[in-house]
Amino acid sequence: MKRLLGLVLLLAVACAPGLLPVSASAERGVAPPAPITGRIWDYVGRTYEAGVGVQVWDEPGGTLLGSTTTGSDGSFSVARNPEILIGGPTFVRVISNGRVQGGWIGGGYVQFGPDFADEVADGTSLGRINATPAYIRGRVVNARTGRPVRGVDVALLRAGDNRLVRTARTNAEGVFALRPFVGEDFNLRVDGRAVGYERGFRACNAQVVATIGQACGSPIGAIGRVFLQRR
Predict the structure, then answer these.
(1) Which helix H or strand E contains 3, and what residues bound it?
(2) Residues of the chain predicted below pLDDT 70
(3) Alpha-carbon dihedral angle through residues 203, 223, 182, 172, given to the nearest 10 degrees
């Protein structure tokens, strides 16, 4: 009986007002911040992107206030930590999932840098956010027959300084994929000499030309076929 009475008294004391732990925001009577919502969209591949990190910051390079990951339909809902007091709006950062590039949300797009980031208030619905692909995928084919060419080396070169960014080799279907990368100004070098084809750079008409001066900046995302001539 004494043991039972002691247990009842212990529970009564533990549940007394002011004795249970209370969050700082609840103690101040501050309502939890409403979440910022939206959906991440690959505007080239026209797909909603799962597995993309989304973060809320007080300012670019400042304090991280909250984070989440997009669901299978590309949607996210993220709120800042109510225990961190800040004044004014926040900024939303996107972390690459290897298929779309990261950056800061501004003007309905994922911007490469913070200079064009929008200030975002609690509870804002951002709608569909356009993200730039972090891949180039295509197929190398025989320019005369249209058949896929296996074993062709494809290199992604940064426009301007021609610095090598990524390399890939075509498979049995002639398909190659270059990813991930940051940016959107690139040239493609295609080298089929190991399998009896030419070496050169992708032109605007998807043919291969001899010099980079004749080349055309490569689109990003799915670029279709690249036509290669036999030597």
Answers:
(1) helix 2-14
(2) 1-30, 85, 87
(3) -100
Is 225:175 a contact under the CB 8 Å cutoff? no
88/71 Cα distance (integer angstroms): 28
Rg, Å, the chain Cα set:
27
Domain range for 90 is 24-131
How far, in Å, CA of 97 to CA of 72, rounded? 13
Q: What is the pLDDT of residue 10?
A: 43
pLDDT digits (tens, 9 = 90+) for 143-181: 999 999 999 999 999 998 999 999 999 999 999 999 999
Distances (CA, A) of 1 to 5, 11, 31, 127: 6, 16, 44, 62
Q: Is residue 153 part of a domain?
A: yes
Provide the sign of the torsion angle of the four alpha carbons 138, 130, 51, 183, taken in this order. Answer: positive
Q: State pLDDT tens for residues 73-92.
A: 999 999 998 888 676 789 99
Mark whether 142 and 126 lie in a shared domain: no
Residues 156 and 122 in one domain: no
Residue 155 near residue 167 (C-beta atoms within 8 A): yes
| pTM of this prediction exceeds 0.85 | no
Domain boundary among 98, 131, 164: 131
Is residue 9 in some structural domain? no
For residues 86 and 164, state if they share a domain: no
Cβ atoms < 10 Å from Cβ of 63: 13
- Of residues 83, 84, 51, 78, the one with CA closest to residue 66: 78
